[in-house]
């Protein structure tokens, strides 16, 4: 088919698709049903509650109360309430006492305060003719996230007029959420997937609690994540909750306090902010001592759903996030067990979000509405009591992970169902001693409160940047898995903890933190969901069962599972007293929960199918146009996609017959630090310029991860380079230069990894100074940091130590080693032999454009046949070696004796030394890369 006909086909198809799109738009009608709203203040005890009632087009209808998260207001859930009203429910949103324009003090969902407020609101709904009733009893459901999820449960326990509920990302026991202890000496745990020990005397979750308290002081809340979590087909952002913005809240935005003097505004109460004195005293105790008295524990329990779940029998859909370092999956697990034991109907959903990952997306919100549709007015199919959990895959589209939903018939261990299947994974590792430094500083880093709700995708980045401090961590690993293992809940491990010899036992016991890592074949560790299980062991020695964090994680074949136990974590309050303990496995089997399920399928509505058809058609048009305009197909060798670099018969000839590179071929594997070695004029820089697509080769090919390199090849984005010089702007700081460079690439800011690159390059605070004040060494470091931005899979550097003095060269060498330690590949061009010998694992030697040698540094260095012997009698050894036939060039260097064996087997020389009574401590090739290099390039005149 000719190009002209192809163009006509593309244009015709485009016209058809545009016409279909217009037809869909015309037939789509308005934005949805008309929703009427009423704003009013409702008196409840000593508080005035700011409310909004959302009325659907057709009434009477069942009502749904919509509660907001901590630090929010009714505006936070406006979109959610409207969405329910569009589904035909009367929705009522209100601002909880102590927040926004509602008066009163924050009592953390106390029965005589916030719970009583909900009952008062139901009284008001019962008076409304728009609300459907059974006699005088209104048909009412309730939902909310985090703080709002807790009030949903508490209200259902106290007020039986609530007919159905859907709590989201909330807690079961606020004491165990903020002061968790995940270890038990009994070894007995429930048979549900994410059951936690929930032991007493836990470890204070200082970072999250601080955010919590700050929100009650009038700052922004944290409980409503600002982005939708990834769901199949979730691209609707129109119903997101308002972002939690501390600055906006402080200024009187929708999420925080109203402007000073605003009507009905709750006023701060000294150092307690808007909290009741009792709550303020409890937080003060925790923040100053890190421990909870019985009074504080009793208070937290009294305002937690655990106090009423034993009497909740209404149908309950529990939605919990898999990315949540505040309220983990163990909290929803406990709630489900308690409601089921009371005879309630429970459906459990774990989704790919949470306080660190985003709110439910549109499809999950639709399921919540379906739950109310069935249980409040008998419409639709029975949602049942199935268990759904989201699995994030390795494939990513537009930076977002692929997500599939797995469905089991029910939550294991509930309602007479069999207990959760647990697969034993054998761990290996010795007994290890770990220390808690004075003050618990420096501390390990696992999570930052609400990170994922601030920047999309940053929670997943954080899971790859967990830091354990050497000397403070014990590790045990499995063998590589032979097939994928889908972890679905909390794994358990048995460990023994005892005081290290001579070390005192702290009076408050030993605080430890347990983690489960996914370790890839290249050694890269990922801490799923950035989750950690704190534990306090009060009596030593002790054998304890540790419940690791509840996660959903497909661990791929060839990956290993690592269990780590640390003494510190910056998100928690750790003991200030120094301590040392030994930890060991009492059972080498890690028990991993596995919940078999089927992949859920959904039939999209016809309108969605038409929309999908339009999208597919547009993709076809783009593909046809791209096929017409593309002059060079993307040449990929599938057998080389895992190989960083393959150069085959590469040549570059300039006018006049000068061949800068002639028939060059070599290969670089993952994890190698390869030195491209050669005298000035050998063709090193020309080769690197061809590798970067800056100039075109005359002959041959270059493949990077299987893709053939050409100017502008997409695969070049996987390379970070320093070849043509840095070109920094001297009047800007180093950091500003890096950010300007990254902005020019057009890639997302969150993919840059500025802080990590600056840390690896060792720039420190100097990165904030103007570049014109930098020494040459600092400029080189900045150039390396620039090359490392985005953490490229391969780093290519041309003479990175040029102009540096010896200390700076040593520092640069350490920079390259640190980068290589991340599991990536480094290619360094240099004419400094000592640097290549000390920094590189492999070497390619070039001379006059040709390859003269390639291999491991040690092998290249040993080509001259020289050997080194470390002996106790150097002079005697030199005499013995000198008498052997063919041996020349014998030298004594301290306790080392060097000799050119010139074909004489090293074993023969070793035997002669032993026979002469010389004790040989070490024998091997003499690693002198300089001599080997000079011999290879034909310049060794000796």
Automatic annotation (TrEMBL):
SUPFAM superfamilies: alpha/beta-Hydrolases (SSF53474), Galactose-binding domain-like (SSF49785), P-loop containing nucleoside triphosphate hydrolases (SSF52540)
Stretches assigned to the ABC transporter domain: 645-873
Source organism, top-level taxon: Bacteria
Transmembrane segments: 606-628
UniProtKB keywords: ATP-binding, Hydrolase, Membrane, Nucleotide-binding, Transmembrane, Transmembrane helix, Transport
Keyword Oxidoreductase included in the entry's annotation: no
InterPro entries in alphabetical order: AAA+_ATPase (IPR003593), AB_hydrolase_fold (IPR029058), ABC_transporter-like_ATP-bd (IPR003439), ABC_transporter-like_CS (IPR017871), Galactose-bd-like_sf (IPR008979), P-loop_NTPase (IPR027417), Xaa-Pro-like_dom (IPR000383), Xaa-Pro_dipept_C (IPR013736)
Comp. bias regions, Low complexity: 242-252
GO molecular function, one term: dipeptidyl-peptidase activity
Pfam families (alphabetical): ABC_tran (PF00005), Peptidase_S15 (PF02129)
PROSITE patterns: ABC_TRANSPORTER_1, ABC_TRANSPORTER_2
Region: Disordered, residue numbers: 226-270
Family indicated by similarity: Belongs to the ABC transporter superfamily.
Name the UniProt record assigns to this protein: ABC transporter ATP-binding protein
Species name: Kibdelosporangium phytohabitans
């Amino acid at each position: 088919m000719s190009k002209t006909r192809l163009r006509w086909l593309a244009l015709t198809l485009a016209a058809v698709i545009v016409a279909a799109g217009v037809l869909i738009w015309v037939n789509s009608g308005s934005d949805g049903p008309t929703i009427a709203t009423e704003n009013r203040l409702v008196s409840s005890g000593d508080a005035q509650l700011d409310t909004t009632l959302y009325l659907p087009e057709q009434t009477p209808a069942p009502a749904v109360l919509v509660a907001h998260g901590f630090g929010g207001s009714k505006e936070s859930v406006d979109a959610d309430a409207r969405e329910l009203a569009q589904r035909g429910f009367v929705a009522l949103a209100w601002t909880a006492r102590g927040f926004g324009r509602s008066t009163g003090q924050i009592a953390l969902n106390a029965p005589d305060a916030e719970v009583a407020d909900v009952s008062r609101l139901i009284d008001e709904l019962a008076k409304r003719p728009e609300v459907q009733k059974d006699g005088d009893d209104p048909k009412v459901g309730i939902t909310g996230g985090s703080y709002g999820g807790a009030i949903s449960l508490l209200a259902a326990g106290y007020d039986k007029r609530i007919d159905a509920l859907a709590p989201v990302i909330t807690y079961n026991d606020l004491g165990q959420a903020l002061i968790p202890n995940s270890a038990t000496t009994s070894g007995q745990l429930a048979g549900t997937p994410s059951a936690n020990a929930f032991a007493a005397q836990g470890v204070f979750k200082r970072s999250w609690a601080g955010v919590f308290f700050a929100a009650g002081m009038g700052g922004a809340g944290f409980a409503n994540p600002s982005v939708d979590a990834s769901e199949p087909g979730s691209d609707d952002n129109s119903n997101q909750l308002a972002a939690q913005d501390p600055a906006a809240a402080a200024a009187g935005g929708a999420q925080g306090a109203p402007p000073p003097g605003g009507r009905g505004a709750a006023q701060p109460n000294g150092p307690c902010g808007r909290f009741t004195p009792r709550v303020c005293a409890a937080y003060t105790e925790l923040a100053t001592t890190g421990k909870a008295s019985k009074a504080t524990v009793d208070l937290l329990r009294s305002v937690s759903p655990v106090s009423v779940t034993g009497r909740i029998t209404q149908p309950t859909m529990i939605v919990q996030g898999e990315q949540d370092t505040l309220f983990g999956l163990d909290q929803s697990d406990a709630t489900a067990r308690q409601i089921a034991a009371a005879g309630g109907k429970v459906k459990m959903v774990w989704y790919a979000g949470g306080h660190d990952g985003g709110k439910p997306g549109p499809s999950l919100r639709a399921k919540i509405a379906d739950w109310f549709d069935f249980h409040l007015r008998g419409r639709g199919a029975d949602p049942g009591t199935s268990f759904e959990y989201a699995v994030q895959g390795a494939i990513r589209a537009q930076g977002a992970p692929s997500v599939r939903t797995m469905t089991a018939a029910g939550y294991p261990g509930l309602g007479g169902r069999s207990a959760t299947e647990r697969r034993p994974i054998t761990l290996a590792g010795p007994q290890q001693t770990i220390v808690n430094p004075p003050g618990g500083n420096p501390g390990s880093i696992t999570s930052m409160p609400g990170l994922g709700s601030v920047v999309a995708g940053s929670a997943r980045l954080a899971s790859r940047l967990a830091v354990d401090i050497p000397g403070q961590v014990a590790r045990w690993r499995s063998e590589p898995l032979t097939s994928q293992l889908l972890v679905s809940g909390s794994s358990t491990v048995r460990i023994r903890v005892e005081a290290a010899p001579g070390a005192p036992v702290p009076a408050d016991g030993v605080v430890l933190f347990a983690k489960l890592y996914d370790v890839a074949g290249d050694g890269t560790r990922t801490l799923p969901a950035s989750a950690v299980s704190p534990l306090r062991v009060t009596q030593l020695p002790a054998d304890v069962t540790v419940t690791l964090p509840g996660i959903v994680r497909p661990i791929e074949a060839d990956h290993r599972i690592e269990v780590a136990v640390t003494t510190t974590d910056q998100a928690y309050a750790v003991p200030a007293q120094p301590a040392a303990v030994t930890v060991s496995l009492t059972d080498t089997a890690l028990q991993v929960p596995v919940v078999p399920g089927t992949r859920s399928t959904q039939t999209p509505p016809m309108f969605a199918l038409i929309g999908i058809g339009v999208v597919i058609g547009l993709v076809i048009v783009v593909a046809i146009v791209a096929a017409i305009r593309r002059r060079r197909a993307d040449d990929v060798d599938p057998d080389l996609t895992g190989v960083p670099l393959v150069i085959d018969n590469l040549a570059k000839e300039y006018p006049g017959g000068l061949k800068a590179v002639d028939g060059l071929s070599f290969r670089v594997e993952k994890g190698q630090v390869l030195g491209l070695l050669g005298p000035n004029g050998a063709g090193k820089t020309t080769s690197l310029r061809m590798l970067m697509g800056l100039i075109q080769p005359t002959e041959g090919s270059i493949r990077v991860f299987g893709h053939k390199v050409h100017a502008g090849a997409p695969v070049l984005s996987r390379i970070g380079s320093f070849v043509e010089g840095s070109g920094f702007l001297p009047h800007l700081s180093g950091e500003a230069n890096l950010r300007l460079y990254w902005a020019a690439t057009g890639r997302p800011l969150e993919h840059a990894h500025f802080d990590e690159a600056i840390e690896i390059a060792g720039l420190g605070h100097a990165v904030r100074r103007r570049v014109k004040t930098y020494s040459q060494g600092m400029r080189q470091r900045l150039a390396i940091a620039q090359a490392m931005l985005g953490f490229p899979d391969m780093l290519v550097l041309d003479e990175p130590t040029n102009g540096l003095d010896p200390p700076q060269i040593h520092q640069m060498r350490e920079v390259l080693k640190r980068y290589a330690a991340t599991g990536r590949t480094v290619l360094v061009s240099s004419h400094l032999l000592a640097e290549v010998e000390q920094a590189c694992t492999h070497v390619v030697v070039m001379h006059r454009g040709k390859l003269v040698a390639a291999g491991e540094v040690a092998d290249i260095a040993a080509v001259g046949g020289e050997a080194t012997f470390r002996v106790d009698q150097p002079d005697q050894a030199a005499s013995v070696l000198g008498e052997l036939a063919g041996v020349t060039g014998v030298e004594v260097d301290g306790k080392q004796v060097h000799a050119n064996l010139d074909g004489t087997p090293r074993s023969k020389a070793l035997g002669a030394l032993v026979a002469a009574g010389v004790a040989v401590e070490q024998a091997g090739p003499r690693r002198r890369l300089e001599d080997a290099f000079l011999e290879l390039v034909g310049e060794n005149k000796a």
